[in-house]
Design goal:
Layout lengths: L2 H9 L4 E2 L2 H8 L12 E3 L4 H13 L3 E5 L17 E5 L6 E5 L4 E5 L4 H10 L2 E2 L12 H6 L7 H4 L2 H4 E7 L5 E4 L13 H4 L8 E8 L1 E2 L3 E9 L2 H15 L3 E8 H7 L8 E9 L6 H15 L2 E6 L3 H12 L1 H7 L8 E2 L5 H15 L4 E7 L4 E7 L11 H14 L15 H7 L2 H14 L13
Parallel strand pairs: 2-4, 3-4
Antiparallel strand pairs: 1-2, 5-6, 6-10, 7-11, 8-9, 8-10, 12-14, 12-15, 13-14, 13-17, 16-18, 17-18
The structure holds flavin-adenine dinucleotide.
The site of flavin-adenine dinucleotide has 38 residues, from strand 3, helix 5, strand 10 and helix 13.
């Protein structure tokens, strides 16, 4: 039976999209930079259906591109050119199967949007801490497969730190029922780790058991104006020294960056968004921030500051940060980077990038923002006014910025993954030993190269 006929019989009404018009939004990445045709888009409802799809695709030599919310920034969830590929969407596998409050965990299907899990956790008085601007659309399966970070990694860790167990369909159609809820389990290899951050190249995640945390009862959020990245680092270190893990957010934005997200309440060369959370209502995290800011202003590391006085004001301050990626896209886009360096080299990284761009790419606009407390910055370069993004020498810019990060002991991909867009960077910066181990793992798990070809491994 032809593949599409068999898929339609398996998945029923609404289970397969085949026309070019219906497929198009699934075939193109969030920024519209990569677009290639798929044979169809399939919408399974169960792990058993995913297993059957894998067997059908193997029999018809069609590769599978797993796709969550399609918000990934490296085109990992859309097809490559030159191979028959089926897009496997999780939009119909979107149930929170249940919360176990005694074990502090939730079981969610791969297609549950992160924000919906956060909401379900909040309704039960718990926190699911992975949060970022696209979390209303990004899904559990996609976030696990990219090991997403977001704005609260500082205190709670990235997606990997939340995963207790996984349900995964392997390349021969086997379903691995690894949904355990054990914080401790040393019975051999920790197999779930292999699928976290694997970008759909080793297996297809159909559900996950995820850690929940106590929900903070008091939160204080401040936007602080700073002169330089070195001042921002000094302020971060000072607040972290007094707040410890209660410092749940520390985001850096240059003036150019913040204006892509909105208009800040005051003007400064750069800004730090800080949040301190407390489990008890009377813990007064605001006092802690106020004290730290008073000291920072006396020392000259902070120039100006506002502390949110209501949840509305907090939302407004958070909105300035969260709106940057979309604002940047609407302003014509940028050559984007997602680097990390050790915290001790952060200020140096920012200063060296500013020098590099001014010297070698004169007129380009530098837009730096991101998760300063994690050593992770998005260093994005926009063309000079009047020039199109396409006219920038993207490979030269990317090579220069990423080499700088790697020279400072950092990584060219902190949280977005590799997908299609960072394959050259992998070839340039990943060690031959690491690449060899990755290739051996890929061959062991997916000998026919069925899962997400042309991604992650150059
Ligand atoms: C405005 C904006 C802000 C962002 N902010 C952040 C941020 O702060 N931190 C951060 O880390 N990321 C951020 N991202 C990037 C992106 O949102 C994350 O990478 C997210 O985790 C992707 O989830 P998704 O469901 O959209 O996955 P997709 O984009 O659909 O897929 C991502 C990868 O996962 C694979 N995949 C998807 N589902 C499965 C599955 N069930 N099984 C196996 N493989 C699968 C895909 O094949 C692909 O390789 C941002 C993106 C946008 C657009």
């Amino acid at each position: 039976m032809p593949l599409l006929t068999a898929l339609s019989a398996l998945l029923g009404q609404g289970g397969v999209l085949t026309t070019p018009g219906d497929r198009a939004p699934f075939e193109r990445d969030w920024r519209g930079l990569a677009q290639n045709p798929a044979v169809a888009v399939a919408f399974p409802k169960t792990a058993e259906q995913v297993s059957e799809i894998v067997k059908l695709c193997a029999a018809h030599n069609a590769a599978i591109v797993p796709q969550g919310g399609n918000t990934g920034l490296v085109a990992g969830g859309v097809p490559i050119a030159g191979r028959a590929q089926l897009i496997l969407s999780f939009n119909r596998m979107n149930q929170v199967r249940g919360l176990d409050l005694a074990a502090n965990c939730a079981i969610a299907e791969a297609g549950v949007p992160l924000a919906r899990l956060r909401q379900a956790a909040a309704e039960a008085g718990r926190l699911f801490p992975v949060s970022f601007a696209a979390d209303g659309t990004a899904q559990i399966g996609g976030a696990i497969s990219t090991n997403a970070g977001g704005v609260q990694v500082l205190s709670y860790g990235n997606m990997r730190a939340q995963v207790l167990g996984l349900e995964v369909v392997l390349a021969d159609g086997t379903i691995w029922h690894g949904l355990n809820a054990l914080p401790k389990d040393n019975s051999g290899y920790d197999l779930k780790q292999l699928f976290i951050g694997a970008e759909g190249t080793l297996g297809i995640i159909t559900a996950a058991c995820l850690r929940l945390h106590p929900a903070p009862r008091a939160v204080a959020t401040a936007l602080v104006g700073v002169g330089t990245a070195a001042d921002a680092m000094a302020l971060f270190q000072a607040v972290r020294a007094s707040a410890g893990p209660a410092l749940t957010l520390c985001e850096f934005m240059t003036d150019e960056a913040i204006h892509l997200g909105g208009t800040p309440p005051f003007k400064a060369p750069s800004y730090l968004l800080l949040e301190v959370s407390a489990l008890e209502e009377d813990a007064a995290p605001q006092l802690l921030i106020e004290r730290a800011l008073e000291e920072a202003m006396a020392e000259g590391t902070a120039l100006d500051a506002v502390i949110a006085q209501s949840s509305q004001q907090r939302k407004m301050l958070m909105g300035l940060r969260e709106a940057i990626p979309e604002g940047e896209l609407h302003a014509g886009g940028a050559v984007k980077h997602d680097i990390s360096v050790p915290l001790s080299r952060m200020a140096e990284m920012v200063a060296a990038t500013q020098t590099l761009i001014a010297r070698d790419f004169a007129g380009c606009r530098l837009n730096i923002f991101g998760h300063l407390g994690d050593g992770n910055l998005h260093i994005n370069i926009r063309p000079p006014g009047g020039m199109a993004l396409a006219d920038l020498n993207k490979p030269a810019i990317t090579s220069a910025v990423e080499c700088l990060a790697v020279q400072l002991g950092g990584s060219f991909s902190a949280e977005h993954g590799v997908g299609q867009f960072r394959l050259n960077s992998m070839a340039a910066h990943k060690s031959p030993e690491a690449l060899s181990m990755m290739r051996r793992l890929k061959t062991a798990f997916d000998p026919a190269g069925l899962f997400n070809p042309g991604k992650t491994i150059p």
